[in-house]
Specification:
The structure holds two protein chains of two kinds.
Chain A: E1 4-12, E2 19-26, E3 29-37, H1 44-48, H2 56-61, H3 68-83, H4 89-120, H5 125-131, H6 133-154, E4 163-164, E5 167-168, H7 174-199, E6 217-220, E7 231-234, E8 239-240, H8 245-248, E9 249-252, E10 261-264, H9 278-285, H10 291-299, H11 312-333, E11 349-357, E12 360-368, E13 374-380, H12 382-400, H13 406-418
Helix pairs in contact in A: 3-4, 4-5, 4-6, 4-11, 4-13, 5-6, 6-7, 7-11, 10-11, 12-13
Chain B: E1 4-7, H1 18-30, E2 35-38, H2 46-50, E3 56-63, E4 81-85, H3 105-114, E5 122-129, H4 140-159
Parallel strand pairs in B: 1-2, 1-3, 3-5
Antiparallel strand pairs in B: 4-5
Helix pairs in contact in B: 1-4
The chains are: A alpha+beta, B alpha/beta.
Protein name (chain B): Hydrogenase maturation protease
Keywords (chain B): Aspartyl protease, Hydrolase, Protease
GO biological process, one term (chain B): protein processing
């Protein structure tokens, strides 16, 4: 009789999402993988109902302490879509600058504090700092500059309060942005060093060939690397607008997770997962990165297409560099508009928006009544969309590394989860592994 | 250089807001003689905030027996005030359940130690809370404790003694 082994993690600790991991496998392969998200539902969509449409950006920002800007951006764009308004270009650009700040702080936190220790064999960033103090210091410094952008444009570093439907409550002056520019120049140099260092890390081999190859899904915009706007495209030819999202993507409840699993509709069971986030953005939008970012990618030998999720840390480091470059471009061309926002008038309507949170596509859909009260809200977060792909990665990864001793295999599985920077990723340093052998 | 008083805590999670509450009590009294920073929750930012400072006082909430599972916390009473030398005493281990992407204060101190970004003196005051649910009401026992702590800190800063320093 075959020997069955189980990797079981009861509690993914120190996370925003509460989860566990269960993998049952034997010599023939993996029988079952379950990324168990048991965090209780938070009912954000339910308690948005009845609230004023102007409150949506500030309420949804509270969903995440790391990417509140993403929630604000998707919320304001969905409401503006509902009300048929298009803010001035200066507002559009400033929103993009705010998003640059969030990408920098979120990506750098993940690169330096959560993911890099995996590649170098440390249990935490603190342990890594003993041997690599200057590296960790650099990470903290870069993150601080991202915080400064969000603080200046958003009003505070975490859960910013300056974003509103139609624009901002207050727009900064040109001179207020200048000190930030100096910091961004320094930060861009550090981001280049960061990309070079990340590229030097040792990466586990992992590839998913057809028919199990990834389906990458991201926004795409003809003129820019996607953040706030664009069409939803995929590596297999999907090309839709935000309003069509629910026609092509569905959420399913699975017994082992309180977070719904997203799938592409109409696909065969087991082949309906897709991947959102930096790797998808990069693969589908490489040509719209800045010349500097592309030149550094070339210098470090990183190709325009990446399908090893362990190398998503390189993509993040390149996106950080891009965000610095883009932030500088925006500041250099910034002109303060006469009014910080367009006044809006409530009407019964429905609106849709998708933006690119650091972890990937973030879909918002709202209906409001004639008084501007929200009657319906639907929010699909990137981690929810990646859950099925994370499970599939573990399913394909474990058979290739079954020769590893138990502790190393567990660590590799944790690292594979962290490739996606899910809100559950920071817990995995505290996982426990149990092996069950059945003769 | 003026002493720096830092509060940590969420004003909208009831007793977790006791740090900012104490901060509000102290600010009008010590505004001329001390600097004040209310932490946004990004504990990694503390390293830059307190680096090169002579004296830092950090105020936070902690769990009491009624909120903690750990047996070694069973004697901690709601409203109890703790004073720790942040440079020489170890903070309790992380509670893995309660944190998010942020690093813990204990980790921030350890990181600062490794990166040579600790202040010369770091005193941590903590008040044990009972209710960390949503809301902005602080338990009456913590309100009394915060007033007591504010007086203690005023006294400490005025007398200039009891410093927790890393200067031999």
């Amino acid at each position: 009789m075959k020997k069955s082994k189980v990797i079981k993690v009861d509690y993914l600790a120190r996370v925003e999402g509460e989860g566990a991991l269960y993998i049952r496998y034997d010599e023939a392969g993996v029988d079952d993988v379950q990324l168990k998200i048991f965090e209780p539902p938070r009912f954000f969509e339910a308690f948005l109902r009845g609230r004023d449409y102007l409150e949506a950006p500030d309420i949804t920002a509270r969903i995440c302490g790391i990417c509140p800007v993403a929630y604000q951006m998707s919320a304001v764009h969905a409401m503006e879509n509902a009300l048929d308004i298009t803010p001035a270009n200066e507002i559009r650009e400033l929103r993009r600058l705010l998003y640059c700040g969030e990408w920098i702080e979120s990506h750098v936190l993940h690169i330096y504090m959560l993911h890099a220790p995996d590649f170098l064999g440390y249990e935490s960033a603190v342990a890594m700092a003993k041997d690599y103090p200057q590296i960790v210091q650099r990470g903290l410094h870069i993150k601080k500059i991202g915080n400064a952008i969000v603080n200046l444009i958003g009003g505070r570093e975490i859960h910013p309060i300056n974003v509103r439907v139609g624009g901002f409550y207050r727009m900064p002056t040109v001179s207020e942005l200048q000190p930030l520019r100096e910091e961004l120049l320094k930060g861009r140099d550090m981001a280049i060093e960061s990309a070079r260092w990340v590229a030097s890390l040792p990466f586990p081999e992992f590839k998913r060939d057809a028919p199990f190859a990834y389906e990458f899904v991201a926004l795409s915009h003809p003129d820019e690397y996607p953040m706030n706007e664009g069409r939803i495209i995929s590596s297999t030819g999907l090309d839709i607008n935000a309003q069509q999202y629910e026609e092509y993507f569905a959420e399913e409840h699975v017994k082992h997770s309180n977070a719904l699993h997203s799938v592409i509709k109409g696909r065969e069971k087991g082949k309906d997962a897709y991947l959102v986030g930096p790797m998808a953005r990069y693969n589908l939008n490489y040509d719209r990165l800045s010349p500097l970012t592309k030149s550094i990618a070339k210098e470090i030998g990183f190709p325009p297409f990446c399908d090893n999720p362990f190398q998503s840390i390189i993509v993040r480091s390149l996106e950080v560099l891009y965000a610095f470059d883009e932030a500088l471009r925006i500041i250099d061309s910034y002109q303060r508009p006469h009014t910080p926002y367009i006044k809006t008038q409530a009407k019964a309507a429905t609106g849709y928006a998708v933006t690119e949170a650091p972890r990937g596509l973030l879909y918002h859909h709202y209906s409001i009544d004639a008084q501007g009260k929200i009657t319906e809200a639907k929010i699909v977060a990137p981690t929810s969309q990646n859950q099925k792909t994370i499970e599939n990665d573990l399913r394909y990864l474990v058979p290739h590394y079954m020769h590893l001793e138990e502790e190393k295999l567990r660590a590799l599985c944790e690292q594979a989860i962290r490739n996606y920077d899910p809100c559950i990723s920071c817990a995995t340093h505290f996982l426990k592994i149990h092996r069950e052998k059945n003769e | 250089m003026k002493p720096l008083i830092i509060s940590i805590g969420n004003r909208y999670r009831c007793d977790d807001g006791v740090g900012p509450y104490t901060f509000d009590l102290l600010k009008p009294i010590l505004a001329q003689s001390s600097d004040f920073i209310e932490s946004t929750g990004d504990t990694s930012a503390l390293l830059d905030i307190w680096q090169d400072r002579d004296k830092v006082i950090l105020i936070d909430a902690c769990c009491s027996a009624s909120t903690a599972d750990a047996a070694d916390l069973s004697t901690i009473q709601t409203g109890q005030i703790f004073r720790l030398d942040g440079l020489n005493e170890n903070l309790p281990a992380d509670n893995p359940v309660s944190s998010n992407h942020a690093i813990s204060i204990a980790n921030a101190i350890e990181l600062a130690r490794l990166l040579h970004q600790l202040p010369k003196s770091l005193t941590i005051y903590s008040i044990a809370g009972n209710n960390f649910s949503q809301g902005d009401v602080i338990s009456p026992r913590l309100v009394i404790a915060a007033q007591k702590l504010a007086a203690l800190i005023c006294n400490e800063l005025n007398s200039g003694d009891r410093a927790c320093t890393n200067t031999p």
